[in-house]
Every structure is written in structure tokens, then in C-alpha cells.
Write a structure and sequence with these properties.
The chain is of the alpha+beta class. The chain contains 14 helices and 27 strands. It folds into three domains: about 270 residues, 2-Layer Sandwich (BirA Bifunctional Protein, domain 2); about 100 residues, Rossmann fold (3-Layer(aba) Sandwich); about 70 residues, C-terminal domain of ProRS (Translation Initiation Factor IF3). The chain has an eleven-stranded mixed sheet, with helices on both faces. A five-stranded mixed sheet has the order 18-17-19-20-21, sandwiched between helices. It has a three-stranded antiparallel sheet with strand order 4-8-5. Helix 2 crosses helix 6. It binds one RNA strand through strand 13, strand 16, helix 10 and helix 11.
RNA sequence: CGGGGUGUAGCGCAGCCCGGUUAGCGCGCGUCGUUCGGGACGACGAGGCCGGAGGUUCGAAUCCUCUCACCCCGACCA
């Protein structure tokens, strides 16, 4: 059992921080607002990257890399875009240091001032569209389907590990198309990729929809998103896909000669997910015993803990454990054998429970004698004795079960945490006492949304795709509404 | 950036009000022994410029001023 560790009930945000730190995912760095992603946390991100990268490639995209620095002037070219990011940009003004003439230490060399300041990218639309201008002349050059894995910087006031840090890792896709239809199709395709990834790899069910004008990406015509529900009833935006229209093409003068010989601005999309997904993973599945990882994203799917007393037993048991490890690895399962003699089995049990390893195998002298193993699964904490024979099939099945069970549990949670509200009182009551997603009518205006946000902290998370039309009255103003939208308090 | 809080050993804390031996405790760490199927136990041991800078004082972890960092609550956001 995990002692000296917060429960979700006691203090949800402390519970979250405890998991991040004690499971060795990340820690705060010497730099304000920036975290160090530790090997175990980074390994999870690498698993995410690998899965996503394959999905991007399978949908025709290629990776490329653009500079981390963006000339200041680029930012001012798309009005809404500047507006959206201006308040959180880190700016490079000088390029040299020198020894402090007045004493010890080092100071900025004022003589080394940049003619034009450089912005540390908060996102790369501007530098990319400035580059695409030179890549596009004819419809034959389209589409451009590029993704970049990168770090970005957004100078946040308040940070939380993985969920919001000043620097974070992400991928940003940037595509250029000849027609509006094709760009919209791309935007929706990538939204589907994200939803697919969230559900099938992260085991987190997501709602798909579009953002209201207030929540839209700065510079986008339409922002699509996937939205997940965390265990404390707050929503988390897990990915966004933007239809940028011709906004950036016009701002950066990206034109192509169409098949008909006319000169047209290209149509654009951008889409991204970040290391925030690691935070989502933690908050969606973990329990009061620590992290719980879905098998498809767990750095180690299985850990083997040998149990022994004498040196003879140790040799015997560890040898058998190695054999099992090889067997499982051959079947494509990632297995860690912890044969350290410096920690006791009980200690290791707790350690791996805390780190969320989906399946634990314990093997002792009795097992070697009987041809058995003890299996423990992290999601249910159940233990059972199984036969060594056919271990690959047993483990494979268990990993699949765990993956499915996590998804099912998360889905059930979301379903019982999704409410309809038809009156303002009902709406407030659900927000304050239950949390979760609230389906309610809204009159469609930014003013109303803003007022609701000011009074309740709840925002419109999304307008569901393929929403079923339904006549009703706005929860706040009573004005007519033709559909319900999804409200929640969010991260 | 506003309001509140905290900085003392790797981690978690006590001591501070009311200044005065060698600054404690738990966990962790090292050595040795007994242990090992759910966080073992004993013995011995190492580890501190009390966040930083100034000041008050015979004397500062303790009082005063400034500063830096982190946490919580607001405004902003993936």
C-alpha cells in the first residue's frame, strides 16, 4: 500500500503532483515554470510519439524542422494571431555576454543588440507560412503535408507539471491545400487521428467537436478539438486541429496558379498534441496506489520480481526469470526483470505499483518447483497463480484485458459524469456538486458564453460534431437555441 | 501580476512568538550482521554557510529591511 501519499479524495492536485514526482515522471527545474522530464516520464512520451508518428506517416505526412526563433515582424502579420500570443512570448534581444566590467559575473553585452528581436516560438505558423511561400507556385506543389516534433515556449503565469509549463514538447502539423474542401477534410482527418490515438492507445474516451469563437485558436477559422474528462470532473483539451482558411496564406502571401490558370491563396490547417497528454494519462486512470498506465503506452508492460532466500535459490529463480523474460520479449512484450539484490520483493511490489506497470510477475522457489507464477494486474490489483506454460498467451490476453478495462472504466465514468441541464439552478448545482460535462442550450453569442464563464468558471468545451438539433432555451438568457453544447470547468 | 503561505541534511518536518552551549526528529544514505512470497530489523556511521544580501546586537535559524525561489487562490492559457 502506498503510504505517506495523498489520495484523490483528500487533495486531488497534491495527489497528481505526488504521482508525477514519486513515479519519477518529472520534477521542477531550476528554471521557473519549466520542468525536467525524467527518463520514465520521457519514455511514456516516446511511446506516444512513436504511435502518433506512425499515424501521421500513414496519413501521408512527413516530418521536418523549422527554427525555434521567429523574427518579431512575422508575428505582426496575422492580426488575430498576434493578439492571441503576444502576452506570453519570450523574446531574444541580444546575442552575446561579456564579463561584468564592474566586478564578478557576467552581463549582457549591450553592444550585441539584435537589429530585430527574435521570438521564441509559441507555435510555428508564422515561420512556416513564410517558408511555404517559396515552396508553392503551382497547384502541382500542393498539398504540403508536414509535421514537426518540437519544443515551444509560452510564458505562463501559473504552471503545473505536464498540464501547463512554460516550455513544452509537442508536434505541430502544418498543411497547405488547393481547396477549402480539402483543407477541411484534412482538419477533420487529423482530429480523427487524435481521437483514435486517445481511445485506442491512451484508453481515454474523448468527445469530438468544434470550439466556440471565444475558445478558437488565434488565427483559425474553425478549431476542432478532442476533449477528455478527468477523474475530478474537470475537462481537459487533449488535442486540437485547426482549419486556418486562407488567413495565413493572405498574411504571408502564399499563392498558387490553379489548374484553370487563376492565382489563388492556399488553404491551410494546423494541428497539435503535446506532453500535456502525459498529464491526461495520469489523471484519467491512476488511483490512490499511484500511476496506472495502459499497456500500449507503458514503458514496461511487465515487470518480473524474483523471490528467494539463499544464494542457491537466487541463482535458480533469477535464471528462470530470465528465461521467462526472453520468452515474453520474443512475443513482442516489453519486460523488465528487476533482479537487484539491494531491494526486497515487497519494496519492489510497491515501487512498480506506484509506477503503474500493468502486469507484475512474481517468481519464487515454490513456483520454479511447481511450474507456476504469480500474476498481479495493476488496474484491478488482483493476483492469481498461473502456469508457466503458455505464459506468452496469458500475458498477451491480460494486457489486452487491461487496455480494454481501462477504456471501459473511463467511458463509464464519463457517461455517469455527463448531465443535461435545462435551468440555471440545475446548471450551477451540477457544476458545484458533481462536476463533469454538462449538455445545455446556449444562445450562440460570445457575450453569453463570457458571462457564464465569469459567473461559474465553466466554459463551452465544444460543440459536438454531428450534434442532434434540439429546440430549447439558452440556460443563461432564455433566448432560443437549436442545439445543446458541452460545458465544463476545464484545465 | 494581485492576495495568502513556505524556504532549516537528498526528502518530509520541529525549533523562530520570548535571540544565548555542539541546531534536532522521521524517512532516505554508508558499513556489518540477521532477514527476503506485500514497503524488514539491530548496531555503528556520514551528511547543515538554517534560500540569498544587508542591518540591529556582546551574540541571529530566531528580530528588522530588501531580494530570490517554490506552493495555494484569482486574472491568462494547450
Amino acid at each position: 500500500m502506498a503510504k505517506d501519499f495523498s489520495t484523490r479524495e483528500e487533495n486531488y492536485s497534491k495527489w497528481y503532483n505526488d504521482i508525477v514526482q514519486r513515479a519519477g515522471l518529472a520534477e521542477n527545474s531550476a528554471v521557473r515554470g519549466c520542468m525536467v522530464i525524467k527518463p520514465y516520464g520521457y519514455a511514456i512520451w516516446e511511446k506516444m510519439q512513436a504511435a502518433l508518428d506512425k499515424m501521421f506517416k500513414d496519413t501521408g505526412h512527413s516530418n521536418a524542422y523549422f527554427p525555434i526563433f521567429i523574427p518579431k515582424s512575422f508575428f505582426s502579420k496575422e492580426a488575430a494571431h498576434v493578439e492571441g500570443f503576444a502576452k506570453e512570448c519570450a523574446v531574444v534581444t541580444h546575442y552575446r555576454l561579456k564579463n561584468d566590467p564592474d566586478g564578478k559575473g557576467i552581463v549582457v553585452d549591450e553592444d550585441a543588440k539584435l537589429e530585430e528581436e527574435l521570438i521564441v516560438r509559441p507555435t510555428s505558423e508564422t515561420i512556416i507560412w513564410d517558408t511555404y511561400r517559396n515552396w508553392v507556385q503551382s497547384y502541382r506543389d500542393l498539398p504540403i503535408l508536414i509535421n514537426q516534433w518540437a519544443n515551444v515556449v509560452r510564458w505562463e503565469m501559473r504552471t503545473r507539471m505536464f498540464l501547463r509549463t512554460a516550455e513544452f514538447l509537442w508536434q505541430e502539423g502544418h498543411t497547405a491545400h488547393a481547396t477549402r474542401e480539402e483543407a477541411v477534410e484534412e482538419t477533420e482527418r487529423m482530429l480523427d487521428v487524435y481521437a483514435d490515438f486517445a481511445e485506442n492507445f491512451m484508453a481515454i474516451p474523448v468527445l469530438k467537436g468544434t470550439k466556440s469563437a471565444n475558445e478558437r485558436f488565434a488565427g483559425a477559422v474553425e478549431t476542432y478539438c478532442i476533449e477528455a474528462l478527468m477523474q475530478d470532473g474537470k475537462a481537459l483539451q487533449a488535442g486540437t486541429s485547426h482549419f486556418l482558411g486562407q488567413n495565413f496564406a493572405k498574411a504571408f502571401d502564399v499563392k498558387f496558379a490553379s489548374q484553370e490558370g487563376t492565382l489563388e491563396h492556399v488553404w491551410a490547417t494546423s494541428w497539435g498534441v503535446s506532453t500535456r497528454l502525459v498529464g491526461a494519462l495520469i489523471m484519467a486512470h491512476s488511483d490512490d496506489h499511484g500511476l496506472v498506465l495502459p499497456p500500449k503506452l507503458a514503458p514496461n508492460q511487465v515487470v518480473i520480481v524474483p523471490i528467494y532466500k539463499s544464494a542457491d535459490q537466487q541463482n535458480l529463480v533469477v535464471e528462470k526469470a530470465r528465461e521467462i523474460q526472453r520468452q515474453l520479449q520474443k512475443a513482442g512484450i516489453s519486460v523488465k526483470l528487476d533482479d537487484r539484490d539491494t531491494y526486497k520483493p515487497g519494496w519492489k511490489f510497491n515501487e512498480y505499483e506506484f509506477k503503474g506497470v500493468p502486469v507484475r510477475i512474481a517468481i519464487g522457489p515454490r513456483d520454479v518447483e511447481n511450474g507456476t507464477l504469480e500474476l498481479a494486474r495493476r488496474d484491478t490489483l488482483q493476483k492469481e497463480i498461473i502456469q508457466m506454460k503458455g505464459i506468452e498467451q496469458t500475458i498477451e490476453k491480460m494486457l489486452n484485458d487491461i487496455q480494454e478495462n481501462l477504456y471501459r472504466k473511463a467511458l463509464e465514468f464519463r457517461e455517469r459524469s455527463t448531465y443535461k441541464a435545462d435551468t440555471w439552478d440545475e446548471f450551477i448545482d451540477i457544476l458545484d456538486n458533481k462536476g463533469g460535462f454538462i449538455l445545455a442550450h446556449w444562445d450562440g453569442t460570445a457575450e453569453t458564453e463570457q458571462k457564464i464563464k465569469e459567473e461559474t468558471k465553466a466554459t463551452i468545451r465544444l460543440i459536438p460534431l454531428n450534434n442532434i438539433p434540439e429546440e430549447g432555451k439558452c440556460i443563461f438568457t432564455g433566448k432560443p437555441s437549436s442545439q445543446r453544447v458541452v460545458f465544463a470547468r476545464a484545465y
